[in-house]
Amino acid sequence: MKDVFARLGSDLFSAIVFLVVYLATDNVILATSVAIAGAIAQVIHARIKGQQLNYMTYASLALVVGLGGITLLTNDPRFMMAKPSIAHFAIGAIMLKRGWMLRYMPPIVVETVPEYVTAAGYAWAALMFVIGVGMILVASTGDLKLWAFYLTVVAGGAKILAFAVQYVVLRLIVTSRRRAAARA
């Protein structure tokens, strides 16, 4: 679980930096510049530490630099605010791969209810798309406080709630099937 939150924090680092600097200074140019510099520094730091970087890391960097550049040219924060939604769409697309979630499940779940894990994987993909659409709609308002609330409370809370529901449901189904198998 700790790895999941660390990865999420890493993926949203530039958005968080942008938000913090913008809220502290009310300066779009400064916030965007610091977010771009932070994203570049994050990749350089990972390379120096010898960490394996995947294409999503480079895609995220390209989005920050590209959307940040547009934000700098237009002085409009909505472009930077759209970056997390694009990331959610990309993650959702990856989650459409059948069975992607099986490798993250304990063996007892994989052996007992693989079809439910596959269904849960598709549900996670749908959640990522819904969050992405919501984030674009919120970003289009240009209301940074509403966007910050959506990014942290709504999107973050939806993922935590989905994880909890998935855990409870899979646990109940596995327990039920194991009991039925023991009786048989």
Could you characterize what this model shows?
The longest helix is centred in the last third of the chain and has 40 residues, at 144-183. The chain is elongated. The chain has 8 helices and no strands. It has one domain. 84% of the residues lie in helices and 0% in strands. It starts with a helix and ends with a helix. Helix 2 runs antiparallel to helix 3, helix 3 (28-48) packs antiparallel against helix 4 (55-74) and helix 7 packs antiparallel against helix 8 (144-183). It has helices at 2-11, 13-25, 28-48, 55-74, 78-94, 107-112, 114-141, 144-183. The chain has 184 residues and is mostly helical.
Topology of this protein?
Elements: H1 2-11, H2 13-25, H3 28-48, H4 55-74, H5 78-94, H6 107-112, H7 114-141, H8 144-183
Helix pairs in contact: 2-3, 3-4, 4-5, 5-7, 7-8
Summarize the entry for a quick read:
Keywords: Cell membrane, Membrane, Transmembrane, Transmembrane helix. By secondary structure, this protein is mainly α.
